[in-house]
Amino acid sequence: MNLLILLAGFVGAIACLAHFISIAAVIGRFRASPAVEAAAARVPVSILRPVCGLENYIEDTLRSSFHLDHPDYEVIFCAADADDPVLPIVRALMAEYPHIDSRLLIGNSTVSRNPKLNNLVKGWHEARYPWVMMIDSNVAMPKDQVERMLAAWRDDTGLVCSPPVGSAPADAGAELECGFLNTYQARWQLLADSIGFGFAQGKSMLWRRDILDSAGGIEALANEIAEDAAATKIVRARGLRVRLVRAPFMQPLGARALADVWRRQVRWARLRRETFRLYFVPELLVGAAPPLAAAALVAGSVGWPITPVLIALAALWYGAEVALAYAAGWHLSWRSVPLWVLRDALLPFLWGAAWAGNDFEWRGNAMSVAVDVFGQELAAEP
Asked: Strands, E, within 29-127: which ranges?
């Protein structure tokens, strides 16, 4: 057996070990949630919800802001444009729930290249309470979301987050996005948190106001093109940890065009490449493709029948993912495994696309991860 075969076997074995250990560790998280101390459960909380345009299930996700069990909270909707088509929905919901402290702020503060952050600045400065949650408009807030985020807070915590978990897919494109979001991305984020190395996720963030203010306030999140990357670095620089909730919150997807799914994945991959390059490089080896290729090489070199070996490994690989989705209560259907196979086939191309360019589009805004040494965005090449 030559050196190439030995190397392939080693890489494949490490990939398999990481896959199965990560799934076992994340399944272990789905146990009884730690209780929130009574004092913490009563702390008043400001909830900032940036809105921009009409999205699938937008009325349902925004309505969830008014059905929280927490006894003392305010909801601040932030919109950049007074003519945004989502505003009639926001105003109607506020009128429907007059007993909930809510208000709508309109305007934009250009503090960064990130339009969501620019939209949130006014909300941060208007928030009344020392605990502030930033929740994307397409996240469905469960009634106990505030309590579940507070339950994750410890003395060494600087930020609590939740990665999005895709739910309610209406077509194959949305199911593919569930495959990226759930048993792939959320799994690895939860594992990182379990070993004490959590990364912020901008979908749902709980701040203790004084921590971010000590770093320069919400404007400090403009230090990176992605506010969650900036948040991770700010928290770690203070010797604190980013923690994730025990079980992530849902993002209902509806219908998704395959091209849109791909563009979103490329956008996120380019952001990861730019903001956490050292951790992005090994993503080339994540997914089923590398261990299956290694298994084929090793099986061929020792005279084993390649096809049965690959079938057995694939069955174990995706069977473990099925077990995770089932244990977590995440979306699972007859199309899930075939679409997970497609996802893993796309991962090497996604990794390559992340390195092949700097530009992307976010909610109609042309953006780039390329910056010069002074932090200014470089002009895109014609």
From this structure: 45-51, 73-79, 101-106
Count of structural domains within the chain: 2
Kindly list the distances between the CA atom of residue 92 and the CA atoms of 58, 88, 327, in Å, as whole numbers in the listed order.
13, 6, 38
Phi, psi dihedral angles at 361 (to 5 degrees): -120, 135
Question: Do 215 and 84 fall into the same domain?
Answer: yes
What is the residue whose two structure tokens read 């309505």? 63
pLDDT tens figures, 350-375: 999 999 998 877 666 677 887 533 34
Name the average pLDDT for the chain: 91
- Work out the average pLDDT over 238-251: 95
**Burial status of residue 106 (CB atoms within 10 A of its CB: 0-12, 13-18, 19 or more):** middle
Domain boundaries, position 278: 1-32+257-361
pTM for this entry: 0.92
Do 278 and 233 lie in one domain? The reply is no
Read off φ and ψ for residue 102, nearest 5 degrees.
-145, 155
Same domain, 114 and 149: yes
Rounded Cα distance between 139 and 6, Å, is 46
